[in-house]
Design brief:
By secondary structure, the protein is mostly beta strands. The strands form two sheets. An eight-stranded mixed sheet has the order 8-9-10-7-11-14-13-12, with helices on one face. Helices cover 12% and strands 42% of the residues. The longest helix has 10 residues.
């Protein structure tokens, strides 16, 4: 069975996401086929877990990331004032890249490609997987490994009109620049301006 993302758990208040232009119903934000569950700061900060289709029943973690098996159908997309249409990719940080890749491959998920780059001046390797509509970008050191769990780190969203989104959000976005992907442009949301705790980027289709 194909592994896909059903839900992301985020330790933010729903009100914060509403102010950032997301449509929120109770504690739920629907982006493309993915549900984002806003569980509040009592759960911590950032992305604190997810539910996946296609993993064994009783799954409790994926290389340390709190994980629940799901059989829910894909979400129905909502319209968002900020122009977000779907999730482009979710970033997962790994202290031991071969270990995390092996865990994913044990679920039948195969790496689509790899590239070497930098993050904050440190050499990294990125390994990309497809989980349904969502790309999973796993990042780790290319030549060393450490102990400890992997962790969900950030989300990049596709927006229909990046210039309109930047105009709406104003100074809470960084300078628009060319993305690594040819022909696309990207900006970073200054998420703390909205009391959000998830690192967030916005990219053209």
């Amino acid at each position: 069975m194909t592994v896909t993302v059903d839900e992301l758990l985020v330790a933010d208040a729903p009100e914060a996401w509403s102010v950032a232009g997301f449509t929120v119903d109770g504690d739920l934000c629907r982006v493309g086929t993915v549900r984002i569950r806003l569980v509040g700061r009592e759960r911590g900060l950032g992305l604190v877990g997810w539910s996946l289709r296609g993993v064994p029943e009783g799954t409790a973690d994926l290389d340390g990331v709190p994980t629940t098996a799901s059989s829910h159908p894909p979400s129905v997309a909502e319209e968002h004032a900020n122009g977000v249409t779907q999730i482009d990719h979710v970033v997962l940080l790994s202290p031991d890249l071969p270990r995390t890749v092996a865990v994913l491959e044990g679920l039948g998920v195969r790496a689509r490609r790899e590239r070497d780059g930098e993050l904050g001046g440190t050499a990294i390797r990125q390994v990309f997987f497809r989980l349904g509509e969502v790309i999973l970008e796993v990042i780790g050191a290319p030549d060393s490994a450490a102990t400890g769990p992997a962790s969900l780190w950030g989300v990049t969203y596709v927006v229909a009109d990046l210039d309109a989104t930047v105009e709406l959000l104003g100074k809470s976005t960084s300078r628009v620049k060319d993305a690594v992907q040819p022909g696309r442009r990207i900006t970073t949301l200054r998420h703390r301006d909205f009391d959000m705790s998830v690192r967030t980027a916005l990219i053209t289709p």
